[in-house]
């Protein structure tokens, strides 16, 4: 599964994207796996309420299932316009 | 309907001219142009705008289609830049054309409210004193509730 | 602030370009452009716009000053034509510049609502079937109540 | 006193402006005087609710006093924008 990071999430984790092997059933399970990996993930995912997630380029929720998803992206609230 | 996510500069005047030309049945054209504001102390060097290629175009297209469905519009234009900008540079523009002014105004406000909080852009202000990501505001999130 | 009541054509794109140039502290520019709409059956030859020289400039200036007082604006532009126009011609334009988008949008809507019912212009639609003065609508009068 | 007419008021009365000698105290008294003059005035001023008045280029009301006023204008509701 491709996992993408943007803005300060990308800065904290240190890479813009990576391939993650996971059997996580939901976004939240994936977050828990990442948090357990290394300190930089724990820091980036410390406060989930400050983050947003997109599944296959559609905004989604942290309790959404990952079945069939190819691309997960984590980022702070958007500031377009 | 035209959506453009681009790094290069654009000319809002030229865009307005081509967008509003030749309408015999649309009486109202509204534009919004977003301009990079300097920091309060005038120290900004660069505003860096990051985006999510692929998702950005999809998200903006969905927002524009939603606007076409909600308001009686003849046409919609959205241009949004990414990359390195400077104070007084044009960041983005929306234009709406309708028979009546209320639809054109409401649709342009709607587009701006949604682009602000639902299009995957992130802004970082870089000055001689350091760099900071622009935070989303509760006000911007609350602006969506009126639609 | 610039107010122009004029017979000659103007270029909304060029006006937007000069209006929005060089602002380092105003992040939002909104424009409204009014375009002559054809009649439903496509028969309009000319729209004649009559006005009240002297009062027109005063009334528009008062409306623009009111907008500057009500909203946090950096600048306002109003251009309004009179004389003989044709379908797809630009009749008028307003532009507002503000730090924040809400002020720019609200001020432009306010200006349009007031110009519509409080600036001394009268429109007459001339087609091969005859000529008729455009009637003011209750809707336009009601639009003033929200301000 | 200069009296100006615009749009269909001008068309009905047949002139865009004229000088009127009057001792009317209010706009409404002036309207009554004009109505009594000739049929074209009676027709133009038939329905006052369809008209607006400006005194010295400021929108005003039909019960407003005319003392000191140099220019009175009658016209239908405005259709700018």
UniProtKB/TrEMBL annotation, chains A, D:
InterPro entries: Beta-grasp_dom_sf, Mopterin_synth/thiamin_S_b, ThiS/MoaD-like. Transmembrane segments: none annotated. Pfam families: ThiS. SUPFAM superfamilies: MoaD/ThiS. This is Molybdopterin synthase sulfur carrier subunit. It comes from Sulfitobacter undariae.
UniProtKB/TrEMBL annotation, chains B, C:
Pfam families: MoaE. Signal peptide: none annotated. Its EC number is 2.8.1.12. GO terms for molecular function: molybdopterin synthase activity. InterPro entries: MoaE_sf, Mopterin_biosynth_MoaE. One of its GO terms (biological process) is Mo-molybdopterin cofactor biosynthetic process. Keywords: Molybdenum cofactor biosynthesis, Transferase. This is Molybdopterin synthase catalytic subunit. The lineage of its organism: Bacteria, Pseudomonadati, Pseudomonadota, Alphaproteobacteria, Rhodobacterales.
